[in-house]
Input
Amino acid sequence: MAVISFIEAITQAMQEEMRRDPSVFVMGEDVGVRGGVFRATNGLIEEFGEGRVIDTPLAESAIAGVAIGAAAYGMRPIAEIQFADFIMTAVNQIVNEAAKMRYRSNNDWNCPVTIRAPFGGGVHGALYHSQSVEAMFTNIPGLKVVAPSTPYDAKGLLKAAIRDNDPVLFFEHKRCYRLIKGEVPDGDYVVPIGRADVKREGDDITVISYGLTLHFALQAAEKLAEEGISAHVLDLRTLYPLDKEAIITAASKTGKVLIVHEDNKEGGVGGEVAAIIAEHCLFDLDAPIKRLCGPDIPAMPYSPPLEKFFMLTPEKVLEAMRELAYF
Amino acid sequence: MTKSTRNRHTAAGLTDQQVLDMYYYMLLARRIDERQWLLNRAGKVPFVISCQGQEAAQVGAAFALDRQKDYLCPYYRDLAMVLVFGQTARDCMLSAFAKAEDPNSGGRQMPGHFGSRKYRILTGSSPVTTQVPHAVGIALAGKMQKKDLVVFTSFGEGSSNQGDFHEGANFAGVHKLPVIFFCENNKYAISVPLAKQLGCERVSDRAAGYGFPGITIDGNDPIVVYETMKQAVERARAGEGPTLIEAVTYRLVPHSSDDDDRTYRTREEVEDARKKDPIPRFAAYLKEAGVMDEQMEQEMAQRVQAEVDEATEYAENAPYPMPESALDHVYER
Output
């Protein structure tokens, strides 16, 4: 198995799917000649030509809307929104169109579109290149929302998203792109959408996370093990619909739950995870459900100390985990 | 009957039978629409949104398309348009009554939200103009697959202010896609008149910004609409790119069954517009051109009446969807 970066996993998934299926194509701002501002589509235009790797006009609603039309026709477009922050002008197309096409046509039409968007901070991106916008899309039945944290999951889930016959919003934490490396098998595989994954087995506390902060939890768990505290770490991977069974199992296993995400706390995905636990396994708990999240401020500021204040770190996560362990 | 020198349709490439068929669809749409208002006022259907006044624009446009391979991304007034593309009076009444057999949505959507994969009519929604980028996407897909297809999308003049109109038209202009942007300018966006909608004089003026032709025509004349559309279709099929057509019409009735247009326009204005009603006008033309006589007109009216009666009765007696079926088709099973 080769060790590759998160962004290489994304590129490989698109490249392999485009080789496998001529109906798969890529469109977005700067995805062609430039290979994407993060280089996620690097090399694709050379291999597949500008007919299948389309540099679009700078207009997000058209990127989503044109992809939706092509998908309804029977293609499998991968539309890139350059930064998740800029998805707002495409929300009408994603929420009112893509997510509702199957339902509103009584199963006559469907929309197999994949919309990729880099999210999250820690790259000096300030308010409008750092946002975590996933919670806006996690109460939209008809839409699937995915946010992988490892190269293996990123590749397998992106392939699953492209092959899915319903719309998938695919969030990639931009800090993971080059920071996170991992083993990926050489052959073709998919990771099923809708299933969480236990990234570390443990007995004392359960941490539930996704994206970059999942890695902070794993690093903290490593340190805590030296202190004799055993942490169980669940990676949600799919944020909508949530894997309720995996959440309940993971929470019940230790009876102490910490939910961690970079998105701000109130109204975040963690609230839904907590509600699932409260509804289904409250009496298995030995401590109140804790959440460690970004602060409830409009977005991540630019100045380094302000950005640092917003971002979670392995140390902040470690502290919260230790506190819960000693509750 | 003798052929009149006032025959315009032959020169436009339309046979006598075709113009009679056009008249039939216009009349059928009008009578379905009128019946739905009656049913609404009788408390039998919750909502109506009308095509009245716009039938000539819709039928003229639809006849210029290839009903075997072209795609429609219509808007909510396009009743006459979807009838030409294959939907029936029964389909429309099933939709009005929100019955399980409604082909658009199985009773899930309000009437006027058309969609039928078998007729290549893409499912639509209520937020206006979202269908415009979809049309562009279908055209892009068709071009990628080297299919000879034209995509037609329609919208009101108010909708031409939406970002999706601009974004979609620009995308199609850049890629020279086979899309026809068809604005049915009925002069009102609910209550707001044209003068408060457009900074420019005509909707068609906007085409210049996208690098393709725009033209404003009399949308009450189905032959003019057909001729203009035919050229746009030929342009699209030849790979020369999109066309914006603004068909000027008038909405003869309120915006919907929940609107009262007396609050924003005079009765005199509406009566004046009724004098230009495309349906009697086209009937008069067909008679002048020697294509239709009194007897044929009456027979046509009776045939349409019978169709609407049958459709109403069928739809009224058809079953509603099962309540629990509300849970179906969120995702693929």
In short: Residues 206 and 214 of chain B are 7 Å apart (CA to CA).
